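Protein: UPF0434 protein DFR42_11335
Species: Undibacterium pigrum
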Amino acid sequence: MDARLLDVLVCPLCKGPLVHQKASQELICYGDKLAYQIRDDIPIMWADQARALTMEEIDARPKA
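Structure follows.
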């Protein structure tokens, strides 16, 4: 995924930052606890298509 695109993308719901998870090919919004899938290098930014994060994923959030 293009790093320049990652710099401008925000969560469509809260407008908060997204974290790119390369292994799962998802953009994570910890504020809304949602994961947006990336398909063929295109982020799917529809809230109804997002996956809810599990408590384990939230607890494993990288600390800044």
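Remarks: The domain at 3-59 is CATH 2.20.25.10 (N-terminal domain of TfIIb).
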